[in-house]
Structures are given as structure tokens and as C-alpha cells.
Amino acid sequence: MSTEQNPVKRFIADVDTSIKKSEFADWYPIVKKEFADSIRTRALLLLSLLYVGVMVFPPIVILYTDLGGSAQGASAILITLTPQILSVLVPLTAIALAYAALSGERQNGSLKLLLSLPYTRRDVVMGKLFGRFVAIATPLAAVIVLQTLVILPELGSDLDLSNLAALTVVSLLLALSFVGLSLGASAATSTTRRSLMVAAGVWVYLYLIWDRAAGGIFTLLQEHASVEQATALKVELFVKLVSPIASYNTLLNSLSGSMSTREARIAMFRGLGGLLPTQKEQLAAQVLQDSVPWYLTDPVPVVVLLFWCAFPLFLGYRIFNEADL
Amino acid sequence: MAAIELDGVTKQFGSLTALQGVDLTVEEGEIFGFLGPNGAGKSTTINILLDFVRATDGSATVLGHDIHEEPKQIRARTGVLPEGYDVYDRLTGRQHLSFVIESKGADNDPDTLAERVGIADAIDRKAGGYSKGMQQRLVLAMALVGEPDLLILDEPTTGLDPNGARLMRELIREENERGATVFFSSHILGQVEAVCDTVGILQDGRLIAKDSVAGLREAAAGDTVLRVTLADGDGTDDVITAIKGIDAVSGVTVDGNTLSVTCDGDAKMAVLNAVEENGREVANFDTEEASLDEVFAAYTESQEQQEVDA
């Protein structure tokens, strides 16, 4: 069987065999099928081009044409800007690629072929989750590497590898969150239209409402419930942190080495996508001066990101499992 | 052990009752034709067997496994051609077959399977570009993966040309000879008549008949129409009286010198004898056996009649 000479192919074959023998074997073929299918979609191709357009070409313009200023200043801007861009692009990519994963198959009937095979509905959901995640993770990781390669000649030894690793890992975690979220929406609904409405609706809500609601809670608690200002602020910070997008940004700040955990949480109060200092930021700096409470430490955003994958997926699965197809 | 056993299966979609207490046993090794007009509940029954749809009441087992508790064990040993499926447009025929082979842990060769259903030359093309008939052949090949003990085929000849339909019948016979039980649904009698051992007729969510093909034909008010042309058409009253005197005869009509006698299939000789005993000469006779189509119509109409009476 494995008389394959090419070491890469042999390695892939070995991984393939070991996964087949593991506990993931139940749904592993679905992962492969999903990956093979998604990687051929036009949506993924377009989104990959978008990644390149946003992440790779602008640095080339800034660093290697007259337009940009000093290389150091330019790369500093890039390092701040990249997470901002990804925090928008990654959720949208994940939604675009996963919202129809189940409802689409249900709508056109290919789900019947899938469920005629020895899979439970749970196997199907799990296989889809990982298949779609890998399909998104591949271009995402590739474009981060590509951007680094583009910046490398100018940055040289200034390149911070831990920064790069943090960016990659946390971005993948954000992708997982939104794949889980939109797959949950896909599982819970019977048409792609409805799944898109649910998934995109949650995204818009998180973007437009969540952060502001957190600010409103602060005012409400402080002015109308006579809660101490420091407590109200910690509550606001925690509520903010429960959004996967806020969690992504602040986790990236504290893991990339440019900020401490404390600074990263305080920076959550910055306006204009982390660029504009605000009054609340100063207040937060006072409140968190001595210590950062456990519910604002780094493991919390990690849990938040995983929660946004697992909880909608679990709810969606429960509905899907009872549904008549 | 029965391959399929339904016990009082009822399914309601909102206020619509799709199935009403269906009891059905399909024995191992038989080819079972599941017959009924469109909308009778055939696909709902199959969807319940595959756990796509959950029964409101009643229970069922397939290959000895409860349909809701152990669907995975059932699917591991069953090949399915579902109704209203769609293939994965972006994947090739080979990718489809390899996926099924891997999913079932089987060791079939995709090329051999494609050959069996006649799509060998298209196996490396994307299935989205296949014609409806080719997609049907592909899904049939997928159903054959792993030599399943049971084949469940929902309207398998839909979208197939006559050659395809013949191939389907051949494959059904081959698989049955190998030892597989075949359960397939159709609203076309010719398909069922040609290959089935046993037929079940479903109408308005109820199983109104289950019998062998021959048995059904006999049971459906059975009747053979015997047309006797007399050499001389005058004064047929005596003959008619004599024929009506035979127990197995249910009716006689006269048209010129032709008598049309509706009777049980085995009463034909008695009728002809009665004609000759009355001194008449038979110039010609032929018989017309009820086709399964008429059987089907007779069954479904009598069912409707009972409903009106009730």
C-alpha cells in the first residue's frame, strides 16, 4: 500500500491513516469531503482574492513605493491595522462559507445522500464544522504568511515571531467561532435564506449593538442602580468581552507582546477601532491599576471565542436532530 | 428475521395525515415493490425507514435494528437511492464513489462500480454536469457500495431512459441473486410487475393490499374477460341463460354475435363447453387478462368506494 516515495505524500497518507484509526474516524470522511467541496466554491476563491487584496497589496504599496513614509512607521501601522481588518474579514468569510453548509444540502436534497451513509446527524454536524473550518483556515493562514513574507525584507530582524504566531492562532480561533455560529444557524433552519438571515443578523448585532449596550449598562448601573463606578466599569468590560469580536481584538493585543493583559483590557475602551483614546480608558486605567480580576484575564476571551462556536452549534444541532428533513 | 417491519406507523404533518397505521413486513431475500399513486405516502414511508422523518406513532425495524435508535447500524448495511436527492455539483463521480466507499469502510473499486451502471467514461467529470439519468446512475452506484444486505430505492427509474430502466431491473435482479433484499417504490406498474416477488399497494397513507404479483391479479375481482364469437348470431338467449348458470361467471354482454363473458380465469372451459352443449358453433374466442394496471385501479377504486359508503 504505502510504497509512496514522495515524503510529503507519505506523511499525508500516514496522517490520514492515523486519523482513520482515531476517535474522529466516525466523521473524518465528511471533513475531507467538505474540504474538497468548499475549496472548489467560487465564494472561497473570491474571498481569498479579497484577503490578498486587503492584506498583501497595501503593504507592498506602503513599503515599496513613494507613497509610504519610513519603513518602521509603516510596519507599525500595518501591525495595528491587520487585526482590525481581520476582525471584519474573518467573520464574514466564515459566515459566507458556512451558512449554507447544512440548510443548503437540506434544501437541494444532497443531505439525503449524506444521511443514507452510516452517519448520525451529529457526525454530519461535526464533520461539517471541521471541514469548513479547515477550508477557511487554509487561505487565512496562507495570507498571513504571505503578508509576513512581503514585510520581511523591510523589517528584517525586527520581525516579532510571537506576534505572528498570536495573530495566526487567534485569527483561526475567530474563524472557528464564526464557523460554529453560522453552522449552528444552518442546522437550525431549513432554507439557506433563513440561515443567512440568522447568521448575518447575529453578526450585525454583535457589531452594532453589543458594544453600545455594554456602555449603556455602565450608565444604567452607575446612575440608576447606585452601583459603584469601579464595579460598573468592570461589568461593562466583562459584557464587552463576551462579544467574540472584542475578545479577538483584546486577546490579540495581550498575546502579541505589544501590551500587557491590563493594557489590552483598558484598550478595549479606545474609540475608532483602537486608535482614539477616550475618557473611559483613563477611568479603566485607574480601576484596573492594582489587579485585573480573573474574569478579565486572558483565558476568558479564549473561552468566549470557543463558546461562540460551541453554543450556537449545540442549539442548532438540537433543532436539527429533531427535524423532519 | 424480516428485512423491514413496520408496526402501526402513522405520520402527521400538521393536520395532514400522510400515513395511517401502516403495518408491513418485507421478508429477507425478496424483491418488494411498493406501489401507489403520487402522494400516497411512499416516500414518507421510506423517509421514516431512513430516519429522515420521525413517525408520529408506531414503530419500525430495518434489518432487526430500531429505525430511530440505531440508524447508523441500518445505514451501514443498506444501500439507498433516495427521492429528491441532489449530487455534489463540484465533486466528480469518482469523488462521490470514493467518499461512499470510505464512509462505509468498503473496498469496492470506483471504476468497477461506474462500469456496472454505465458511467465509466464520465467518472472523472464533475457530477454537476451530468444529465439527470447519469446522476441517477451515479447514485445507484453509490447505493451498491459495500454489497448491502438491503437496497431501498425510491422511484429508481425516474429520469431514466428505457435502457436505463432495463439496467435498473437487471441490477435489481443481480443484487437480489447475490442475496440482497430489495425494497423499491414506484407509481409505474410495469416496473414492479417485471421484477417483483411481492407487491404492496399504498393509497392515501394506508396499505390496501399486499400479495404476490400473481395473487394480486387473481384477487382483484379477478376477472378474465372471455370473448366468444359464434358462427351464427341468431337466438342466443338459450346460450346466455346456460352461461349465466355457471357459478364462476359474473356477467355476460352481447354485441351482434359476440358474447363477452366476465368470469374467473379457470372457468373459461366451462363457458366454451356450455356454448357447444347448446348446439352452437364457436367461430373464434380470445381472452383478456386483467393487467396489473386494472388490478391497481380496481384496488384503489374499491378503496375510494368504501370511503364513500362509509
UniProtKB/TrEMBL annotation, chain A:
Transmembrane keyword on record: yes
GO molecular function, one term: ABC-type transporter activity
Any one GO CC term of the record: plasma membrane
Transmembrane segments: 43-64, 76-102, 129-152, 164-183, 195-210, 300-320
UniProt KW keywords: Membrane, Transmembrane, Transmembrane helix
Record flagged with keyword Nucleotide-binding: no
One Pfam family hit: ABC2_membrane_2
Protein origin, superkingdom: Archaea
Protein name, entry field: ABC-2 type transport system permease protein
Automatic annotation (TrEMBL), chain B:
Keyword Transmembrane helix assigned: no
Residues in ABC transporter domain copies: 4-229
Keyword Disulfide bond: no
A single MF term (Gene Ontology): ATP hydrolysis activity
Domain of life, per lineage: Archaea
Pfam families per record: ABC_tran (PF00005)
InterPro entries: AAA+_ATPase (IPR003593), ABC_transporter-like_ATP-bd (IPR003439), ABC_transporter-like_CS (IPR017871), P-loop_NTPase (IPR027417)
SMART domains: AAA (SM00382)
TM segment ranges: none
Gene3D superfamilies in the record: P-loop containing nucleotide triphosphate hydrolases
Keywords: ATP-binding, Nucleotide-binding, Transport
Family: Belongs to the ABC transporter superfamily.
Name by which UniProt lists this protein: Copper ABC transporter ATP-binding protein
